[in-house]
Amino acid sequence: MTRPQTRQKRGRKIDGWIVLDKPPGITSAHAVAKIKRLLDAAKVGHGGTLDPLATGVLPIALGAATKMVPYIMDGTKLYRFTLRFGEARDTDDADGAVIATSDARPDDAAILAALTAFRGAIMQVPPAFSAIKVEGERAYDLARAGAPPDLPPRPAQIDRFDLIGRPDPDHAIFEVASGKGVYMRSLARDLARAIGTVGHIAALRRLAVGPFTEQAATTLDKLADSGHSAATNPDLVRPVETALADIPALALTEAEAAALRNGMALSLVDLMGRIPAAANPDGGLVRGLAGRRFAVLGRFVDGMLRPERVL
Fold first, then answer.
1. CA–CA separation, 159 vs 156, rounded Å?
2. How many domains does the chain have?
3. Is 60 exceeded by the pLDDT of residue 5?
4. For residue 131, is pLDDT > 90?
5. Do 277 and 168 share a structural domain?
6. Residue 3 has pLDDT above 60, yes or no
7. In 3-state terms, what secondary structure has residue 255?
8. Could you give the angle at which helices 108-115 and 184-194 cross, rounded to 10 degrees?
């Protein structure tokens, strides 16, 4: 009797993060596919989609790091974009078709006055060309088919929105620090409307995602030059726990770490005096360390520390 052949998993097991400086003109999915081929990696994902027009920090998760993607997505993101006044486009960026024009060009005072309404907790209508699902269809598919959906506004958190440059009357440069799921294209579109004109994003760069910054980013060309050896280069592939660097650290004993790893919860009473000031005791995350070694990601719930993710 012939035994059925077992299907071998393709690719090498590589665990860690690559901080990619995504070039313009490709999607985040294409960047993931290229890195998967370059490293012959078995499992690859990314932490936060960038539009094809956009450049900058795209965290690439390898192997066990893919389990950390939700926490990266929740981290603060820093962007710089150029707003082009006078032209509205169907995609809300330079890749789209012009759908409206205006001769109005705001001065700096008008821009600064309008920015106040776009800081803090706001409601934002996503771009019609976005990956949001509408009755099972992607919004961008509907928009490309000539039936852009009427998307409802969604909550968005804008921690910082600053005017940093004005190269000419047609353009203004901004930096934005925001939470999860905020669309820079919507910010640009809505700010232009608020000042009595129309506009779109002419250039967009992401400067940081959580603990990952552009200073630490590498390029596809450098990865291609390194080939498979990139997987063992600590300057290119960073440890899995790097993604958690901006989560408050909690010192644990070996016994406490073992208990959490086994699914047990610890009382906050037993942890008093060690809970970091930056940690939120009501639903907040902490990075549990046994010595200097990452042990477990835990969350405070109902007076207990419960394990959320164990590597």
1. 10
2. 3
3. no
4. no
5. no
6. no
7. helix
8. 120
Q: Is residue 259 part of a domain?
A: yes
Catalytic residue among 15, 21, 40, 51: 51
Who's near 123: CB < 8 A, 6+ residues apart?
153, 154, 155, 156
Q: Is 51 an annotated catalytic residue?
A: yes
Per-residue CA distances from 305 to 146, 267, 293 (Å): 50, 6, 18
The answer on 238 and 266 residing in a single domain is: no
Q: Give every CB contact of residue 119 below 8 A, 6+ residues apart in sequence.
A: 158, 159, 160, 161
Give the burial class of 284: count Cβ atoms within 10 A of its Cβ; 0-12 exposed, 13-18 middle, 19 or more buried: middle
Q: Which long-range contacts (CB under 8 A, 24 or more apart) does 108-117 make?
A: 108/163, 108/166, 110/195, 110/196, 111/163, 111/172, 111/191, 111/195, 112/163, 114/191, 114/194, 114/195, 115/161, 115/162, 115/163, 115/191, 117/194
Distance CA 298, CA 27 (A): 33
For residue 89, what pLDDT is reported?
96
One domain, residues 157 and 254: no
Task: Say which residue the tokens 């506004």 belong to.
Answer: 153
Instruction: For residue range 21-60, list pLDDT tens digits in order.
Output: 999 999 999 999 999 999 999 999 998 889 999 999 999 9
The reply to whether the predicted model has a pTM over 0.85 is yes
Residue 218 lies in a domain: yes
